[in-house]
Design brief:
heterodimer, A: alpha+beta, 2 domains, three-stranded mixed beta sheet, 13 helices, 19% strand, B: alpha/beta, Rossmann fold, six-stranded mixed beta sheet, four-stranded antiparallel beta sheet, 7 helices, 33% helix
C-alpha cells in the first residue's frame, strides 16, 4: 500500500516532467477540458444568480403566506344587477373564521383603495392600505423614521397614517413629515412614521400582479371603517362606480420553515382548508387565493431542470475534451514507442506502462480541471464587470458555488482515466523488440 | 566454472502468413559464469533473434533456455519482465537512454521496475556507478548534453545497477568512433575481469578480439565456436 503510494507519487512527478517537455502541446490538448469546466462553472454561477433573484422576490412576498383577496365576480347578474353599488369580496366573518385555523400564526386583514392624498398644495395619488399593526411583520416592512401602526391606534380609532417612501417624498420634499398632518377624504391624519424604500414584488403571473408598495399610506383598519365605511366610490372621467367591499385582502402566515419540505406541507394544507372555507361561503366566486409557496416550488423545479440541462451540456463538453486528450495520447504513444521499448527491456511490466500513461492522462485532465476552475471564476467575476462597463444599468447576477468546482474537478480526472485507458493499453501491447527498433 | 546460460535445441520460427521462416534451427550452447562471449554472423544468421531470446525479450518456439539454473523459456510476459530487471543488464547500440531523465535517473530505472523503494541508499549506489564509469561530474545532465561515448557509459552504469548475472550488449560500439570504442571495450573487459558474464553481438573482428570466446552463427546454426588466446 505504502509502496504503491510512493509509486503513484513518483509516477505523477515523472508525468508532470514528461508533459512539461511539451508545454504548448499539453496545453492545447487540455484546452477542451479547460473550456468545458470553465463554462460549467460560469454558467452555473450565472444561472444560480438569476434564479436567486427570482426566488428572493418570491420570498419577499413571504413564502409561508397565503393571500386571499377579493375579486370582482366575472358576471354580477345573479344578484343586485341593477344596483349601483357592487357588493362582493371577503368579509369580516371570513376573517374571524380564518382565526380558528391553528397552524396560522398571523392574520392580517386589509382594505385597499386608491385615493389622492393632500398636504397643503401638494397632492399625490396614493394607495390607502387600512390594516392592523401585524401588517409590518407579514410584509417585512422596515421603518425609516417614527413608528408603524400600533394596537392603540386601532382601539382608539386614531387618525394616524404611516407613509411609504415615495408618498413621503412627494408630500414632504423638504421637511420632516413626522407630526405633520395630511388630508385624506377631507379628514386630517397625523403622520407618525415613514417606511423604507421597498422593492416591488415581481409579477409572477396568474392573479398576482406586480405590486408597488412605495405609494402606500397605511392607516388603522378600524379608523378606515369608521371614517370611510365599506363603500368606496370611485370617480374617473366619464364614469363613476361604487363598490361595497369589507376587506380587500387577508394575508395569513403559516408557522412553518420554508426550507423544510415536511413543514411546507403545512402551508399547503392550510391553503386547501382556506380554499374550502371560501368555496362554501362565497358561491359567487368573488375571491382569489394565492400561495407564493407554489410559485417558489415551481421556481425551484425550474432551477433543478436548468441544472440538469447544464449537467448535460457539461458532460458533452467534457466528453469532447476527453476525445481531444485521447487523440493526443494516441499520437504520444506512437511518438514514444521507443521509450516504451526501453522501459520494457529494462523490466517494466505491461501494467507499469499502463500506469505510466494513465497517470499522464489523469495529470493532464486534472490540471485542465484546475485551470478550468480558475478560468470559470475569472469569467464569473470578469463578465459582470465588463457588462457594467459596457452599459452601467445592466447587472448580471452571479452566485459562485463550490460544489460544481469539486464535481467538475473529479469528473475531469475521471475523464482522464476513461480516455487515457485505451492509449495506455495500446502502449502496453507494443512488442518490446519492435518498440526498441522504432525510430 | 558452472554454466550460467544453457541453451538446448533452441528453435525459433516466424510465421509470415502461410510461410514459416526457420530462424534458429536447434541451437545448443553453454556459457560459463565469468565468460565474455562475442556473437558474430552475417545479417539474417539469427544472431539478433538469439540475442533477444537470451535477453528474455522473446520466447523460443521450442527448446530450453536455462538462466542461472531456472528455465525461462516459457515464462509469461510479467515473469520475463521480472527476469530482465533482476538478472540481466542491457547495453544497446544506440544507448537508449530516456531523454527527459538525468544521468542518475537513467541509471536508477531498472531499480524502479524491480519495485524497490528508491531512497538515499539506492541513489548513492547510482552515483557510485556513475563515478565508476567516469561521469561523477555529470550526474544531473540530460543524455542530449552528453557525447556518444558518455551516453554509452551511462548505459553501462544502468546495466550494472541491478547487479545482473549476465550483461547483454547489442553492438555496444556500433555507433562510436574507434577511440571511444576502445574506451568502452576496456571498460567491458575490466568488468569481465571483475567477474561479470558478458554476451555481446558485434560485426567487427577487432571488437570480437577483445572477447574470450567468439561464436559465429550462419543460417540459424552455430558455425564456429572459438576461444581466443590472450
Amino acid at each position: 500500500m505504502f509502496g504503491s503510494l510512493t509509486k503513484f507519487r513518483r509516477n505523477t512527478i515523472l508525468a508532470i516532467r514528461s508533459l512539461w517537455l511539451h508545454k504548448l502541446r499539453t496545453f492545447l490538448s487540455i484546452l477542451g477540458i479547460i473550456i468545458g469546466v470553465a463554462s460549467v462553472i460560469s454558467l452555473l454561477a450565472f444561472g444560480k444568480g438569476s434564479m436567486k433573484e427570482a426566488l428572493d422576490s418570491i420570498k419577499r412576498q413571504g413564502a409561508t403566506n397565503i393571500v386571499a383577496r377579493s375579486q370582482k365576480p366575472p358576471d354580477d347578474s345573479a344578484t343586485s344587477s341593477r344596483s349601483f353599488v357592487a357588493i362582493y369580496g371577503l368579509t369580516y366573518r371570513d376573517y374571524e373564521k380564518f382565526q380558528t385555523i391553528p397552524s396560522i400564526g398571523l392574520h392580517v386583514p386589509m382594505r385597499v383603495f386608491p385615493r389622492e392624498v393632500r398636504r397643503h398644495e401638494r397632492m399625490h395619488n396614493g394607495r390607502v392600505v387600512a390594516t392592523i399593526p401585524q401588517y409590518m411583520e407579514v410584509n417585512k416592512l422596515e421603518v425609516a423614521v417614527g413608528r408603524f401602526l400600533v394596537e392603540k391606534d386601532s382601539e382608539l380609532f386614531r387618525n394616524v397614517a404611516v407613509l411609504a417612501a415615495l408618498t413621503a417624498d412627494k408630500l414632504f420634499p423638504f421637511d420632516d413629515p413626522i407630526g405633520q398632518a395630511i388630508v385624506l377624504n377631507n379628514q386630517e391624519f397625523l403622520v407618525v412614521g415613514i417606511i423604507k424604500d421597498r422593492m416591488p414584488t415581481g409579477g409572477t403571473g396568474g392573479s398576482q400582479a406586480a405590486e408597488d408598495f412605495n405609494s402606500d399610506i397605511y392607516i388603522p383598519l378600524t379608523t378606515s371603517r369608521r371614517r370611510f365605511g365599506d363603500v368606496i366610490v370611485q370617480r374617473s372621467t366619464g364614469s363613476r362606480g361604487a363598490e361595497r367591499v369589507e376587506l380587500s385582502q387577508i394575508t395569513l402566515t403559516v408557522d412553518a420553515n420554508v426550507d423544510n419540505p415536511e413543514e411546507r406541507k403545512k402551508v399547503k394544507a392550510a391553503g386547501d382548508l382556506i380554499k374550502e372555507m371560501l368555496e362554501r361561503s362565497h358561491p359567487k366566486n368573488d375571491w382569489a387565493i394565492t400561495i407564493p409557496l407554489d410559485k417558489l416550488i415551481e421556481a425551484e423545479e425550474t432551477e433543478r431542470s436548468f441544472e440538469q440541462l447544464l449537467a448535460l451540456i457539461a458532460s458533452i463538453s467534457l466528453f469532447v475534451g476527453g476525445i481531444g486528450i485521447m487523440n493526443i495520447m494516441l499520437a504520444t504513444v506512437t511518438e514514444r514507442t521507443r521509450e516504451i521499448g526501453i522501459r520494457r527491456a529494462l523490466g517494466a511490466k505491461r501494467r507499469d506502462i499502463v500506469f505510466q500513461f494513465l497517470i499522464e492522462a489523469i495529470v493532464q485532465t486534472s490540471v485542465g480541471g484546475l485551470l478550468g476552475i480558475a478560468a470559470g471564476i475569472s469569467v464569473v467575476y470578469g463578465l459582470p464587470a465588463v457588462a457594467k462597463w459596457w452599459s452601467p444599468e445592466k447587472t448580471i447576477p452571479a452566485v459562485l458555488q463550490i460544489e460544481p468546482m469539486v464535481y467538475s474537478f473529479f469528473v475531469a480526472a475521471g475523464i482522464g482515466v476513461l480516455f487515457g485507458l485505451y492509449p495506455a493499453w495500446r502502449a502496453a501491447q507494443l512488442d518490446p523488440i519492435e518498440a526498441l527498433r522504432h525510430e | 566454472m558452472p554454466a550460467i546460460v544453457q541453451v538446448q535445441r533452441l528453435i525459433k520460427n516466424y510465421y509470415l502468413g502461410a510461410v514459416t521462416v526457420n530462424v534458429l534451427k536447434g541451437i545448443n550452447l553453454e556459457i560459463e559464469e565469468g565468460d565474455f562471449v562475442a556473437l558474430m554472423g552475417p545479417s539474417g544468421s539469427g544472431k539478433s533473434t538469439l540475442m533477444n531470446i537470451l535477453g528474455c525479450l522473446d520466447r523460443p518456439t521450442n527448446g530450453e533456455y536455462i538462466l542461472s539454473g531456472r528455465n525461462v523459456a516459457l515464462l509469461n510476459d510479467d515473469r520475463l519482465s521480472d527476469v530482465r530487471c533482476r538478472y540481466l543488464g542491457f547495453i544497446f547500440q544506440s544507448y537508449n537512454l530516456l531523454p527527459q531523465y538525468t544521468v542518475v535517473e537513467n541509471i536508477e530505472l531498472p531499480l524502479m521496475y524491480q519495485g524497490k523503494q528508491l531512497n538515499e541508499r539506492t541513489r548513492a549506489r547510482c552515483i557510485a556507478l556513475a563515478k565508476l564509469v567516469g561521469l561523477g561530474d555529470r550526474l544531473d545532465h540530460r543524455p542530449l548534453e552528453l557525447s556518444g561515448g558518455q551516453q554509452q557509459r551511462v548505459a553501462i552504469a544502468r546495466a550494472l545497477v541491478n547487479d545482473p548475472h549476465v550483461i547483454l550488449g547489442d553492438e555496444p560500439t556500433g555507433n562510436l568512433d574507434s577511440t571511444t570504442s576502445v574506451e568502452i571495450m576496456e571498460m567491458l573487459i575490466s568488468l569481465n575481469n571483475a567477474g561479470k558474464t558478458i554476451i555481446m553481438v558485434t560485426h567487427e573482428n577487432d571488437i570480437a578480439a577483445n572477447a574470450r570466446r567468439v561464436i559465429r552463427l550462419r543460417d540459424g546454426q552455430i558455425e564456429s565456436d572459438v576461444r581466443n588466446r590472450n
